[in-house]
Amino acid sequence: MNGIKAIGFDMDDTLYDRDLIYQSAYDLVTRYVVKSNVEFEKFNLVYQECSLVEYQKFMSGEKTFDEYQLDRFVDAFKELNIDIDIDQAKIFQAIYDYQKKHVQLRQFMEKILLDLVERDDIKIFLLTNGPGDNQRKKIKNLKLDKFFNDDEIFISGDLSVSKPDRKIFDYVSEKLNLDPSSIVYIGDNLENDVIGAIEAGWRAIYYDYEARNDNENKDIPTFSEDKDLYEYIMKQLEK
To answer: What cofactor does this one take (predicted)?
Structure first.
């Protein structure tokens, strides 16, 4: 990684597996609260789309944080022809919040952080989309504060701009006081993380943990296993 001065990380789905939390909450809700025969994988695809739509409404000021959180569940079930009320959505959110307290880093993502935090020649930082308070709770639960100082954590909800908007990448470059070409960013979302970073002049590594194989640019390092990603980064840093 010639010329690299900083390596940044997305958080949700990159440093930890968010789907494990959703599935655990979904299984409990559909067992005791909402009648549904829909497989989690199908629900999750719909839910992620609804969550993104509701998040954009929250960021634009159209909805409050609570409305964003609850409406994404209501909308997802509605898309699957299942009606739930706000009280049921609150139960889903409460179970999800409880499960988040027990979240853990992916094994080799933690190893990457452990190795990098000991280096003096590479800065590390966190750049994540989401409401500020919500993301900080995840950071605390994941114990990421032992790797990142406050000035190395960038949350879209605090900055009123989200990935893939170039403004957020430019802001981070400025705060790090680094040339964009000296920054590498690792993320699981091809559009938000990878393309967004590259268009801002950064380098990017695509963590395609779901093996979607949707990256047609062979020049972008792409990995579906965090172990392979770890080995790649360590080898590159040896050069």
So the answer is: Mg(2+)
Token representation of residue 148: 């990142």
Q: Is residue 1 part of a domain?
A: no
Output the pTM of the full model. 0.88
Neighbour order of strands in the sheet with 153-155: 153-155, 123-128, 6-9, 183-187, 203-207, 222-223
d(CA 56, CA 63): 9
**What's the pLDDT band for 5 if we cut at 50, 70, 90?**
very high
**Among candidate residues 170, 173, 216, the one with its CA nearest the CA of residue 191:** 216
**Nearest CA to 183 among 140, 137, 125, 135?**
125
Domain count, the chain: 2
Domain residue limits at 197: 6-16+104-238
- Express each pLDDT in 43-77 by its tens digit: 999 999 999 999 999 989 999 999 999 999 999 99
User: Scanning the structure block, which residue is given the tokens 């549904």?
Assistant: 36
Q: Which whole number is the average pLDDT over 222-235?
A: 96
- Residues 175 and 87 reside in one and the same domain: no
Q: What CATH number does residue 170 fall under?
A: 3.40.50.1000
